[in-house]
Amino acid sequence: MSELALSESRAGSAPAPGASPVAAPPTPLIELRGVSCGYGDRVVLRDVDISVPRGTVVALMGTSGGGKTTVLRLIGRQIGVMSGQVFFDGVDIATLDRDGLYAARRRMGMLFQQGALFTDLSVFDNVAFPLREHTDLDEEMIRDLVLMKLEAVGLRGARDLMPSQVSGGMSRRVALARAMALDPELMLYDEPFAGLDPISMGVAATLIHDLNEALGATSIVVSHDVDETFSIADHVVFIANGGVVAQGTPAEMRASTDPLVRQFVDGKADGPVRFHYAAPSAADDFRVKAADGDAKP
Ligand SMILES: Nc1ncnc2c1ncn2[C@@H]1O[C@H](COP(=O)(O)OP(=O)(O)OP(=O)(O)O)[C@@H](O)[C@H]1O
């Protein structure tokens, strides 16, 4: 499978005087090489290659149940590979011991769809939580950092509210402030636009893009929302049928005539991508032979 085409502007500027004109490209922040994985005996992804260059926003899109969230779990090593390797900053995460893994995870911010806030903590204390848990910073410093993160998501004024007092969209933004409390190098977003109204969706998309720039981070966004996701992604990877079925820039995906890509971009129910979860034959399940008198009662 091909690596992500890295746009020239992102790949780096002109070589310094005296430097080799053909410098090796920087290692991607995340790289999946020949990864197969699944749950129990069930294989979800087969021989998948995905490369996420530093500083970019990469979108994972595709069929429901295709394995997008599974890719995020692989990166955080919440699940392991059956075969292949997952590299974070050039290190195969399977080789990390417990401390190494925790250190790697602290460099990642994860915003999951059900990334619920701690209901008994205020907005302020929710964002302060990772700082108190993982750093030795004094309370004055924590206060400044928390207010900066809340300012970034437009909620500095909501610091004293409890989670039950904020809307769904606000709650997502608080979770985002908490996810980036430790200034992660990598942000993982699982369905950040789900359940948001169109205005909040636009705000969330802009926020993801701007935070990526401001933090100098790299982001992976799992989403079904074509317009919002295409507006902020440098690269889109479509996952279906157990693997990467298409990838490219949003413009390339919009211009593509590949029926598979068209099915995603145009949101068509019918097309080359399977909609149904693997199941016994419909004939067996619905006993269509009953008409012939063959089915058991
Ligand atoms: N903890 C689990 N145990 C067993 N199977 C799982 C588990 N989590 C996910 N799966 C299965 O793995 C497959 C991929 O799931 P995953 O959540 O990665 O898909 P997805 O592409 O993120 O889907 P969606 O877009 O619907 O959220 C699905 O068929 C799902 O049923």
TrEMBL record:
Residue runs in coiled coils: none
Residue span of region Disordered: 1-23
Keywords: ATP-binding, Cell membrane, Membrane, Nucleotide-binding, Transport
Domain ABC transporter: 30-266
Pfam families: ABC_tran (PF00005)
Stored SMART domains: AAA
Name of the featured protein: Phospholipid/cholesterol/gamma-HCH transport system ATP-binding protein
